[in-house]
Design a protein that fits this description.
Elements: E1 2-8, H1 12-23, E2 28-32, E3 47-48, H2 59-75, E4 80-81, E5 85-89, H3 97-108, E6 113-115, H4 120-123, E7 133-137, E8 140-142, H5 144-157, E9 161-164, E10 168-174, E11 177-183, E12 188-196, H6 202-207, E13 216-226, E14 233-236, E15 245-249, E16 252-256, E17 260-262, H7 272-285, E18 295-304, E19 327-331, H8 332-336, E20 341-346, H9 352-367
Parallel strand pairs: 1-2, 1-12, 2-9, 5-14, 12-20
Antiparallel strand pairs: 3-8, 4-8, 5-7, 6-7, 10-11, 11-12, 13-16, 13-17, 13-18, 14-15, 15-16, 19-20
Helix pairs in contact: 1-5, 1-9
The structure holds flavin-adenine dinucleotide (FAD).
Flavin-adenine dinucleotide binds next to helix 1, strand 2 and strand 18.
Length: about 400
Amino acid sequence: MKADVLVVGGGATGAGVARDAAMRGLRTVLVERGALASGTTAKFHGQLHSGARYAVRDPVSARECVRESAILRRIGPACIEETGGVFVLLPGDNPGYPGRFLPACRAAGVAVEELDPAAIPEREPGLTRHVVRAFAVPDGTLDSVRLVRACAASATASGARILTGRSVTGLRLDAGRVVGATLEDGTSVEAEVVVNAAGAWAAGVAAMAGCRVPARLSKGVMVAVAGRLVHAVVSRCRLPADGDILVPLGGSTIMGTTDAPVKDPDDGVADDTAVRAMLAAGDELVPGYSSAGSIRTWAAVRPLVGDVGGPASPSSPSEGRQVSRSHRVIDHGEHDGVAGLITIAGGKATTFRLMAEEAVDAVCVALGSPRPCRTAREELPAEGGLDFAR
Ligand SMILES: Cc1cc2nc3c(=O)[nH]c(=O)nc-3n(C[C@H](O)[C@H](O)[C@H](O)COP(=O)(O)OP(=O)(O)OC[C@H]3O[C@@H](n4cnc5c(N)ncnc54)[C@H](O)[C@@H]3O)c2cc1C
């Protein structure tokens, strides 16, 4: 099998890369070891970020979210639920934080509006009655599996091949450059460039070519209770910390997340301490959250590739919380002296399209063939099928 671009990983990032590359006229093959969207993409918190969460500490990520959430609303409205978002300051939270939050949101371009706390009980009857200040922002929720299927359908419509249920087990090198990959069934794929979009597993894929991905892995635990206990995505108005967002998704309300360093990308254990902490955090926002209904718990791992931001603070003690949530494109020709391999890692589901655009721009540079990106303009198909070639 021959391709211009081989994409390793079929999460939001890999599916976005395959769509973008195929739409630029590149012969594209995507290989995913499980089903599409079976990695972190299917286990995320579900939020379409307006950028407000990152405005104070991570303005680059905030601006990316502003721009990409607007694009996604245009090209993939079927993947989004317009729940809106509310940031609430509770007694005990730093009363000075809104003084930083409001101007930072405005500077990043987040449409933010202060609400009268007296109006909150009518707007969000499930929320605690102790809201001190509240701010509306254009957060929403994202159906990530639908998004990935739509990207894959768009990619195949532009000629890409999507192979699921097969691992890349080796990268093939010739004269110090990556020239393709071997799959677990022995199939060989020749490629001009391999894009490593393997998320938390990206370091393992890069290591197949003797390359390094400088990322730390961070695990986030989430809990969901049955029923929609809030209408909007509700966030604490404070520096990002554990357990500060409630997301109404499908028929449940999800509290998350934590941020704990892990070594193993397959460490998907939702440990008891973290689960209890998430339930307690849910109770602070919605009294009775922890006894609302059947409880589901899970964890997902994120690769953090950004720079460490501002200094630690008591309300954000975890080092992982200080790392930018932005993404990084690594050309391993420059980074490790091994051409033909590009890693795209970090970021958010909300910014997957931008990540894909930057990765495919790097592919075009490597191929010496500049081609414009069209993914911000062309709508995604409303439904993505599951019948991909094996
Ligand atoms: C706890 C948590 C909560 C989050 N919440 C949000 C949120 O609310 N909103 C938001 O926008 N973002 C959120 N994110 C971030 C978001 O989930 C990720 O940025 C995004 O889903 C990553 O997609 P990906 O395609 O890069 O990785 P993945 O979805 O993990 O995809 C990588 C794929 O590579 C495959 N793979 C690995 N090795 C191989 C191999 N050798 N051969 C073939 N395939 C391979 C895996 O099976 C996997 O499917 C959250 C992340 C975490 C950890």
